[in-house]
Amino acid sequence: MLEVRNLIKKYGDKTAVNDITFTVPDGRVTGFLGPNGAGKSTTMRMLVGLEKPTNGTALVDGQKYRSLVSPLTSVGALLDAKAMHPGRSGRAHLRSLALTHGIPTRRVDEVIELTGLTTAARKKVRGFSLGMGQRMGIAASLLGDPQNIILDEPVNGLDPEGVIWVRNLARHLASKGKCVLISSHLMSEMSQTADDLIVIGRGRILANSSMSDFLALADNSRSLVRTDQREVFAETLTARSITFEPVDTDGLLVQAPSRDIARLGVDAGVLLHELTPQIATLEDVYMNMTRNEVEYQSGTFTTPADSGAAEADAPSPWAGKEAKEQ
Ligand SMILES: Nc1ncnc2c1ncn2[C@@H]1O[C@H](COP(=O)(O)OP(=O)(O)OP(=O)(O)O)[C@@H](O)[C@H]1O
């Protein structure tokens, strides 16, 4: 089990981790999500004693990392896959780690096989691809067969087969009762891997719940409607103060139960050739939650159609939505 209690990390004026408390239980995969710079890596580094907390505690099975009698059997971490001697072979790197921790050489061969590196492990580390480096980092984290596994963006650089392999590995480890904490920016992948989620933004906890409770925060009350009479149907919706927004050339995203929308279509004599309830994804809920927590805001791409001039020429029925929002 991993625990952080009132954990704070400051770098000068910058508060990277701002008083966070959570527990990562055994036997489950916990996804650790948050925008760039949210404080995920800093928190993980404090758990394995690579950073000293400014305040609060980070515990592995109830103990600070430096108090652990046998750290590699308590916690394994992939934090920086590039942290290997470039002139050594992968196998030699793992062997040296094993030797310094009293781990038998046969375990080196086991983790090499487990991570699919049997051929690559003979190569010098400097010749490794990004994906091979990630696999080697994961192999190192598993060397001591630890109870707790911390993986910071483990699927970074992995091909689709590698991504599925990490998912299956995480699920397998949790099924053996291990505590697995994984950070990732790949929401679709995380939705298939994690049982629980911890979301942080600007160093603070935004959510800490099971995946199903997190997804229950979704707004599933909208339906996509497609019709050749979009303007007529938009006027019908506006007359009933139903919120909507245009999609593509013939679609409307309508904020109403699909049964009510179908009924409105019949009453208005409008043929709806598509009516699809929108089920929000993990990415939708996450994006909504972290919208105001992004430290590094991306620019937006504009096309001529997105420009103000195009908006001025937009058909009037969309006023229904704007009027409702104001
Ligand atoms: N050694 C350091 N010195 C100064 N600031 C740091 C240091 N390490 C991290 N930070 C800052 O702390 C904040 C949290 O960084 P951290 O790497 O923990 O975020 P993250 O959530 O892991 O981000 P990413 O998803 O981009 O990896 C950032 O603003 C970062 O610039």
TrEMBL record:
Cited SUPFAM superfamilies: P-loop containing nucleoside triphosphate hydrolases
Gene Ontology molecular function terms on file: ATP binding
UniProt xrefs under CDD domains: ABC_BcrA_bacitracin_resist
Cross-referenced InterPro entries: AAA+_ATPase, ABC_transporter-like_ATP-bd, P-loop_NTPase
Similarity comment: Belongs to the ABC transporter superfamily.
PANTHER family assigned to the protein according to its UniProt record, in alphabetical order: ABC TRANSPORTER, ATP-BINDING PROTEIN
Protein name per the record: ABC transporter ATP-binding protein
